[in-house]
Fold:
Amino acid sequence: MRQYFRGHRIGNYLRPPPEHDLIYVKNPKAGCSTILLWLDRLHTGDHGFEPSNIHKENRLPTVREVGRPVVEQMLSGAAYRFSFVRNPLRRFESVYWDKLVPGSRLRLKAPAALSVWPDPHTFVSFEQFLTAVEQQDPMSDMNPHWRPQHVNLLHPLISYDRLGRLENFESDLERIRAEVGLPDVPIEVRNASKQARTDSVYDNRPDLVRRVEQIYAKDFELYGY
Structure:
């Protein structure tokens, strides 16, 4: 599994609350923050928990605490394995608006992660972003927020019981809850745009659509988008 997370701690991408016999494999930009908060509330019973950063402040057991052998068994079928996917075109566009556009609340160090813009305040056009990503190796270079989802989800190492779709988030999460027999806990949507954009980076640019489709061809094939 380590080859899928070169330069990253694999434990940061696996959330295995063993008391519920399920394990979640994180797939950034596909409802990840919302799912982590849902799992935290499920694990602790604290339904009013509202952290500022669920990725750093969640109280879920870590891989180290659960034990690597147990987690490996969970991933092999001893637990219910699930995650969520998203339309690759929309996911890649969302990364750009959230992490590359000046003033975005999630911009952080994304330009530096591309190894081409050392100044985090440099404006990066969508086409520049796309060109840089096209030159990256999915396994060793790409940030998990924009690398192919099948890499984040360790395909084909893991066989999932359910891969929900962000486009059907609430109904698919309810299906997962029912299939595992989990108690009903409140869902609070995190890191979603408060207002839908009326424009798109793909407007009148079918060439950009084709280039993004080429990067994520395997995701389109595996997840039926």
Remarks:
- The first strand starts at residue 14 and ends at 15.
- The mean pLDDT is 88.
